Every structure is written in C-alpha cells, then in structure tokens.
Known about the structure:
Four copies of one chain form a homotetramer. With 347 residues, chain A is α/β, with parallel strands linked by helices. The first copy, chain A, has helices spanning 12-22, 42-45, 81-85, 88-93, 108-115, 137-142, 151-165, 195-198, 212-224, 257-268, 317-331; strands spanning 2-7, 27-32, 72-75, 95-98, 129-130, 145-147, 175-180, 203-204, 231-236, 243-250, 274-276, 294-301, 306-313. Helix content of chain A is 29%, strand content 19%. The mean pLDDT of chain A is 97. Chains in contact: A-B, A-C, A-D, B-C, B-D, C-D.
Amino acid sequence: MINAGIIGSTGYAGQELVRLLLEHKDVEIKWVTSNTYLNKTYNKAYGSYFRIFDQECISDNDFENLIDEIDVLFTATPHGLSAALINKEILQKVKVIDLSADFRLKDKDTYKVWYGLEHASPELLEEAVYGLSEINKVDIKKAQLIANPGCYPTCSTLSLFPLLKEDIIDETSIIIDAKSGVSGAGRANNVSSLYCEVNESTKAYGVAAHRHTPEIEEQMSYIANKDIKISFTPHLIPINRGMLTTSYATLKKKKTYNEIKELYEQYYKEEYFVRVLDEGVYPETRWVEGSNFIDINFKIDERTNRIIVISAIDNLVKGAAGQAVQNMNLMFGLPENTGLKQIPLFP
Amino acid sequence: MINAGIIGSTGYAGQELVRLLLEHKDVEIKWVTSNTYLNKTYNKAYGSYFRIFDQECISDNDFENLIDEIDVLFTATPHGLSAALINKEILQKVKVIDLSADFRLKDKDTYKVWYGLEHASPELLEEAVYGLSEINKVDIKKAQLIANPGCYPTCSTLSLFPLLKEDIIDETSIIIDAKSGVSGAGRANNVSSLYCEVNESTKAYGVAAHRHTPEIEEQMSYIANKDIKISFTPHLIPINRGMLTTSYATLKKKKTYNEIKELYEQYYKEEYFVRVLDEGVYPETRWVEGSNFIDINFKIDERTNRIIVISAIDNLVKGAAGQAVQNMNLMFGLPENTGLKQIPLFP
Amino acid sequence: MINAGIIGSTGYAGQELVRLLLEHKDVEIKWVTSNTYLNKTYNKAYGSYFRIFDQECISDNDFENLIDEIDVLFTATPHGLSAALINKEILQKVKVIDLSADFRLKDKDTYKVWYGLEHASPELLEEAVYGLSEINKVDIKKAQLIANPGCYPTCSTLSLFPLLKEDIIDETSIIIDAKSGVSGAGRANNVSSLYCEVNESTKAYGVAAHRHTPEIEEQMSYIANKDIKISFTPHLIPINRGMLTTSYATLKKKKTYNEIKELYEQYYKEEYFVRVLDEGVYPETRWVEGSNFIDINFKIDERTNRIIVISAIDNLVKGAAGQAVQNMNLMFGLPENTGLKQIPLFP
Amino acid sequence: MINAGIIGSTGYAGQELVRLLLEHKDVEIKWVTSNTYLNKTYNKAYGSYFRIFDQECISDNDFENLIDEIDVLFTATPHGLSAALINKEILQKVKVIDLSADFRLKDKDTYKVWYGLEHASPELLEEAVYGLSEINKVDIKKAQLIANPGCYPTCSTLSLFPLLKEDIIDETSIIIDAKSGVSGAGRANNVSSLYCEVNESTKAYGVAAHRHTPEIEEQMSYIANKDIKISFTPHLIPINRGMLTTSYATLKKKKTYNEIKELYEQYYKEEYFVRVLDEGVYPETRWVEGSNFIDINFKIDERTNRIIVISAIDNLVKGAAGQAVQNMNLMFGLPENTGLKQIPLFP
C-alpha cells in the first residue's frame, strides 16, 4: 500500500486527486491539507464525499510533521508555494509530485519572467523530472521529484510529438489554438469565473502571453532538438471539464494521411492512454471526460500543405490529477494504468 | 463471472449500463443489440468506448439465439417492446432486468390508460418484482424478472419511504415537484431536445399527466398500505444528468427535525446508497453525478406544519442503469454495491 | 425627457436598467453610481456598452449633489442601503424607485426578522407603494416612492391573483415551488456562484426560510383579504436569466379549465405584459427572455382537486428592471409599455 | 413602409429576421412561409411570439402569388432552394436578400464542388452582390439581389480587412480558427445537435473541408487583389449564439500595435457596427449577443512575428439576419442602423 499526502486538496485538481486516489486499490490517503477548509471534514468542501471520505483537512503548516506517514506527497498548490515547501530533506523521505508550475521550467530566469516570482528552490530544478508520462517514462520511473505538466502542454505536446521527433513539420510554423473548460481557472472566487460571466460566451485570454507558452516551447524544443517558438492562444469555453487543442503546422514535405498515421501508431502503440482515432473521426472532449485518455487525430490540408492536429483531454485528469497518478504508478513500479481505467462519463 | 446481454444498448440508459457493467469485476458483456447501430462497433455510437469496448451491435431479432450465452438479460428498450420480447421460456433460461416501464404497474388496465398500449404479456405482471432495491430487497433476491423503477419514482419514493411507512404524513397532501436533466428524454432526435431549445430555459411538462404518476402512487400505496393519490409535476432543466425532487406533505402531528431524522437513519442505516445529509445541508444533483447514491434531507416548516423533503439522484444511475446493476447484484448474491462504488464526478 | 439617475448601476439588475433606459425614447440617463467601478467608464464593467454608454461611474456618496439633475432615481442596491440613503428631502425632489427589498414589507419588525437589519427609515414605509404594476396601478401612478417587487413575489403573485381575489382556492393549501436562473444571485464573487459550482447541477436553497416568503404572503394577504401563509421553496437552475414558479392549491369547489381561464382573461385582458397561454401550453422561460412579459397557464388536476399554476418571467426584466421601468412609465403618465416592447430573444 | 416577405421563416435565422423586422419601425411583414409549420400561427413555432406576431405560416409554393404585396423578399432557406426559387421575373418586382449560400460564390463550378449541387440559376450569379455591408456598401445600395454572407466569412473577413487591403500580412500564412454556437447548425433534428450531445463538450468539424472556406477565400482574394488560400477550422461550442474567430498571419514587416490600430480606425471610423476595442481588451461573444456589432482586436506576437486577430459576432445577427436587415436598409436608402440598435443582452 502506498501512503499518500496531499497539500492543497480542496482546489479542483486536488479534489480530482482525492477521487482518483480513493479509487486506486494500492493507495491510502493518510492526510490532506487545506487552508480554506482547515479543520473541517472534506465533505464540507465537496458534498460528494459525504460518507466516502470524511477526513478533516489539516494545515499546510503541519505537513512536515506528518511526512513520515507517507510515501508520496502531492502538491496541488498555487504557483510559488510548492517551490517554497519542498526541499532536499523532504525529497530524501518521500517522492514528490508537484502539480503546480514550479518545477516545470528548467531555467529560473525564464520562470521569473513568466511567473513574476523569484524561484524559491532553484537547486531542485535540475533534479525535477518533467512528468509527461508517455515521453519521459524512463526518467519518471527513477525520479524523486516530478514536475507534473500543465494541461495545455500535455494536450498539445503529446499531439505533436511524433511530428516533432521525426522532423516532419516546419518548426517555425507551429500555431496552437486551444480551448479549455472553466475548471482550469480553479476554485478561486473572482467575478470573471462566475456562472453568468462564463456561460453563453467564449473568449481568448492570455493572448500571446500565457504562462504555458514557455513550457510548451521547452518540451517541444527537447523533442525536436532545436529551439522552437510557437504561437499559442488559449480560449475559455463554457464547460466544466475538457480541453481541445487544434494545432497547425506546415509539412516539410508531402505526406499522406496513412504515412503519418503509421508514425503515430508506431510511437503510441504501447500507450494505453493515447488513442489515435480512425481517419475522419476527430477528438471531442465529451469522449474523454472523467478519464485519463488523450484522443488525437489529424488532417492534411493539401490546399495549404498544412497538417492540422486535434487532441482532447480532460484537463483535470490527463491534464492534472490523472497524469499525476500515472506518474506515481510509474515511480512505484505499478502498471501505468492502475486506478486509471475509469470509462469516460457521458453524457 | 456473470454473462450479460443488453437489448437496446445504445440509448442513454443502455450506454450507462455498458459503462457500469464494464467496470464491474464479476460481469462480462457477451453481446449488445442496437437497431440504430446495427453491425457497427459500439464506439460508433459513443466515441468514448474507442479501444475500450469495440463489440459489434447485433439485431434485436437475434437475441433469442444467443440467450444461452448469458445469465442475465437487460432490456433498455422503449415502452411496449420488452413486454413483447420477454416470455416464460426466456425467463426459464435467464434472469431479466427490464429498464422500461412494461412491468412496473401491476394492473394491465392502468398500463393501458397511461401508456396507450395493450400489454403484450400480462401473464408476467404478477411475477415481476418491482426493483426498488432498498425497499424490496428480499423479493428482488429471489426474482427472475425485475421491473426496474423509473427515475422519478425512485427518487421520490425513497425520499418519503420512512414517512409513509410510519404514517407520519397526511397521505392526501403529497405534492412532488421534480426537476430532471435532459438525458431522461433519451437519445431520440426531436426538435424539443435540441441544444438550443433546452439550453437557457426551464419548463414543466406532463403537468398532472406524467406516466410516472401511477407508478409512484402504486408504490407509495403499498408502503402506506392505503390508496394514495399525489400531485406530480416534472420539470426539464438544462443539465445532462441529475434529478431533484422536492416533496411537500402535511404532518399528522408535530414532530421535530431530530425525531424524523432518527427515523430516516433507522430505515436507512444499512443502506450504502442512501445518504441522509446533515441538518441544514440539502441535496444537490452535482454531489451524486455519475454515482448510485441518493441524497436526502428535509425541513419541517412549522409555519405551515408541512415537511419538505428533498432528494437527488443521477437519473441514469440510481434512476436507471445503476439500480439495474444493484438489482443484478442482489439477484446473484453479490454484495449490493459491487461495481457501484464510483465516486461522484465533480465538477 | 425624463432624466434618470441610478445608484448601484453595475450589479446585474442595475445593468439591465441601463439597457432598458437607453432603449427608452423618453429617458436620458444623467448619471450612474458604482462603488466597484468608481471613476471608470461603464464599459469597463460590461464590455457590451463599449461606444454605446461610456459615462464614468460616480460614487454613491455624490448622488445627493446631483439630485437636481434628475427626475427619477433608481436604487439597485443591496438590502439596507437604500433605506439609509432615501429620505423625505430626496422624495420631495425626485421620484424614487427602489429595486431592493427595503420598502416592500410594511412592518419594520417583520423586516428585521427576515433581513436581520434595523430599518433605517421606517417613517417612509407607509408612503411606499408596492410596485406590482398590474395590481397596484392606481397607487403607483400617484406614488413618489416605489418598492419594486422581488422576482419571486412578482412571478407567483401575478400567477395566483385572480384565484386569490375570487376566493377560489383554499388559502391554507398554497405551495409555491420556484426555479430561478443564476443572475438572481447577483454579481458578487462567492464560490457558490462560480461557473463550475452551478453548471450541471440544481438545488433548493433557503428552504422554508427565503426572504421573499413574507413579501409573497403580505401581498397575497392583501389580495385575498385574509391572512395567508404559504410554503415557498426556491431552486437554483443553471441558466443566466429566467424564473418559473409552479404553484399548487386546492380548489374550494370544482371548476373547469374554461371557467377559470375566463377569470384570468377578465382580470388581465387590459394587461399588455400578462400572457395567459392557450390551453395545454405551459410557460417556458425561454419564451420571455429579455422581455417584460409574464406567461401564465394552469391545469386542474381532477384526481386531487388541485389547481397547478405555472408562470414564467425574466427575473431581471419583469422580476426587476423591467417592472421598474414599467412603474416609471406609470408614474410619469407614459403608456405603460413604452420602451418595453422588446421581443424575447431566442435562442 | 417597406413590405417584406420571408421564405423559410421558422428556422433560427428566419426567426431572428422576424424579430428584427418586427422591431424595425419602417418595415411591415406581410407574410411568412414555413413548410414545417404550414397553416399554423407563428407562435406555434416559437412561443415567444404569442400575441406579438400571430400570422399563419403559408406554403413556399404560394409565395409567387403574393409577390406583389411586398417590396423585399428574404430567403432563409436551405442551400439549393433559393437558387431554384429566384428568377429574373421576381427580381424585376422585388429586391431579394438571400440568406443561404446560393449566390455567394461567383463560380457555379466552385459551388458544385463544395455544395454538391448543380446551381439552379447560374445566370443570376453575376448580378448578385455579396452583402458584406461594410465593404460592399456602394454596390449593395444599387443591388436587386443580395447574397447575404455566411457567419464565418463575415466574422473573419471583417476582422482582417484592413490588413489584407494594406498588404500587411503574408497572404499564404492565414489561419482562421473559429468557434461557433449551436444555433449555426439550425433547427433540424439530428442526434448530433441534441442537448446532451453538445453540452459539456467541444469539437472541431469540417476540418479543412468546411463550405465557408471558398467563400472566405473568394472575398479575401478580392480584397487583397491576389489569390488567397487559407486554413479554416470551425469548432462547435456549447452556447446558443455567438461566434469567435481567432486568425493568425505573419506580418510582412514589423509593425507596432498602434500603427495597425490606426489603420483599423481609419477603415472603420464611419462604421457603426464595427467596434475596434481598446488595447488589451479582446472580443467576447457575450458582449455582442443579440446585437449587430462585430468586436475586433488584435495582438502582435513579436516572438513569432505574427499578428493574432480576434473578432466576435452574434452569428444569428451580424452573421445572418442582422446583416440582412442592414443590407435592406442600404438598399432602401435608410440609415444603416435603423432597427438595429439593440443593446447586447447580458447576462
């Protein structure tokens, strides 16, 4: 049995982690922290857990005393906080999976530019393994500290991975137009996330300025082994969960659908969670809701010599808590999909 | 291993059954029928099942030939069809759980009045056990044919059960005002179920004329052991899943919240799926979504001497496929919640 | 030209008032106050007004200095505030239409019980006219201070008015089950109004304790000329705008649909905004969205001898700003529907 | 008074036309046709019109007999039908504004390729004026037959117009990623438009194959005076109304935000319906809902040397019926915004 602790358990990603870990046969949640629901039973934060998970939330400040009870620590905290909380001593005692952005960028200066914060533990950046499970599997298995990827980087990077690796697309031509459900904004109470403000509308946000941009670029650059700059525009759409990325790139030379399809299948044939769909069938977020799948397909637009790649995930699962559990499975030598075989919930 | 067949597998209730049975460790789905997706793989009906469940749908007409392959038959068919399909021979070979209304009313004349159909197998009405699991558990365990309850009857009857049984409320005073998500209308393509027609609106329908009325009355009459007539008004609200009933009744004599709460706890203390909430906390459909729970609470309005009872279910789970699986568990001697411990999905 | 000022212009009701007054040919908005958007142009609060209404919001504190510029003052403020702001001097200079609850209840003690506040200007309670336009038309025309009705009281009282007035229903039997869109909760940023918390769910709230209860009872008591106590349960449903009330009452003696229909037509035949629908057609909120109409219809349930009355309004229009403008029209001698003929927006 | 007839009045675009024409002080609707609601009063199709517009719908087949009653004919018909209905004789008697795609493409072969139909009246293609009001104003004023633009072409072409006209962007680099509400799919009853199928999901459709592609390309080619090929991907999002396009293009040379902003203001300074927003404020569909506005803004992404242009319309207004009325105003010498000053409805 893997004993787990969760810091920041009452945000949306933290809650999803609680759900998945409770449904995981090899895990026991020893404690959860929450400042908002401090000393309250968990079902006060989420009524769904009434009689299912009734632990009292403890304070972030208490977690170090309880570190010996656990084997793995999940941090589902605002940016800046986990970098301040995690240190070498903790990493000697437990494996850490950080769902925040703090350990995703290798360069602390880049971090400062995009997050506006001085990094609190730059000495750990080197050690942290970027937890894009399908791509960094070998390193994840040996890691003590995982930087769990952002939702946008997960969805877009996995969808372009074979193309980048095989050098099929012009790396200066990449445009990623993404659409996200509202849970990505978290449970913070600001006017712009109110029901009436989001419902019946859509908008772009963080235009050419979203913090996931350098994360996507860093990962794509590793894959392609060259410096990549992308255009990335996220949009907010009125759904609770779900993320769709539509990526555009110019093909370096003519390719048929089948040639490229074969590549995708070759790269992903062992990957339980990556579903490359049948020709002509494009991902829809409803078909992955509540699950850890990423659905991918593409079309070659011969009129413009571009490839259009579409991918869908549940932003809270594959885009956050699900991938965190997937990484935990890898780190503890479990089959990668343990506890993650939930069938998407529809409708 | 229980081998199962499903007739009418590609409606919303049928699909939910597929989901739950696939997640049930003791069940194997041997075959599914669908006229709409005949000879097509199941994921053509629901993309979520791509690489999860890729059986081809067979015809309703073929099912009798395949009856020997299965131990239990689920019929998730339009009203009238299962009464025509099921007969004594089939019941000798397999247990049948009918999710339609065909075997819910004991009197074929009442059936005709409300459904406008001559009942095709009235000789089976006596044998059929009404599958409200918490109430008819003993009979369900011995049953060969289950009439799986409607969503409204499930939600309202369980919420009033202790009050009716204990003769606490004036049985002429019962009013049930219900709110249902859109999946209750099924996957049929009619204009009134189009997104733009349902979204951003609410309405009552079947006012004083809904077919679940006699079903509710029959069950409540059994419980109270007297003839009960209710007022029942269903409303359509723009959510996929979820049902809330708000029931009003006059108290026969003064009772405190705690006195009645104790009764509920006494009746339901062994029931895994019935959650009587803490005082002041009222059911919300989001807290049961995707699960087989029914959440219940009530308030005594001293100003009017009425009790107001509120209950919430997922209409596709406890209101249909989940309760069907619960009944299957009972019929096959399994723990009642086997395969039904999914945590509600939120948000 | 009527010159208008609005205190609290950037809440949802305030904004709707701005929309309706800008579309009103006889009104000019001289100034608007907003503490949240103080000194900002109105389109910073609502982007829809860009280049349409670009006044700067002024402070609540400045309004008295500007009282000479206006003929009518609308207060769309939180409860308690308008009672503190309005006084005899102001009422000598301008007509006041208060959209808050401060002047709706005639008894300051009842106010204190339900609102938890000492009333700041009880001396004005007698003078205030309850602005249910269709019922109190004569008094409204002469009024200097209007207590603009709450959304629930408007929707339910108008729907039962002929029945109460004609003494057709048992006044102890009235149950009002109401459903409201989320804009009724206002633009305050609390977690329970976040998109993900409201979307895909429904719940009752304020069970047997909602503040509109005494307001409804007071108005119904006036109409019926006897003391009336009701059961009232509001529900939140995931739509921006719209309110539906389903009311139940026992008939004192048998009546046919047509007999009662005739009464409704008699009472409302001169009323532009009251639409009594054709038999068998029930109100839906989508058919009144964005308009000042109230749609009403009913069914007699002979099995239980009850009448079920259903009515629908747009809570921000007939339930707030629209009725305020309707009252203004009456007070200034304009045709009642001036500036209020907007056709409902669908889909 | 302009007398108007509408063929196909009970689709979503037809209904919006009814709404706008009823709110237009210079127009009288003489008759409307509908095959679905033949001989029924209009409120049977849309309950919102009860007591507002109660004409009976006549048959498409009768319209020629009634052509003398009208000055302008609107055709809101499926593709193929208006080309079959309109002819020279009709055009001699009345002005025609066709909301279908039949007269938008100048080349009948291109029409056949994308619409799969032989064009029924190719001799009219030359005469038809493409009704993008802001761009073709001079010709529209003199036109007898207007091809009212598609929603996607309207939204994207207006947003790029100054850039194309001024030759600022590389015309081979244009990518348009569009998001549309569900009303764009019309009121036809197919499973994919059901509430439960669309709600809580998003998807791309018509990937590199949507019929608006050649229409956009044709108009952009006229503007730029060179042959333009674009990548265009529409997405379906769960809102009733609203369309957002996010367009990407490479700048031919470095430009500042202000330089380009000045261009937009120069091109659109006389245009009532085009709102170029303040720097840093991006279009959201909620701010134009129910109105004829198009909101536009852009960002220059210096890292990639691209310009990202975002625009929002209400697909049923500026994207269909509103622009049709705008064109009618131009054709009849009325101020362009007559009857089109509705303030966006929010929330």
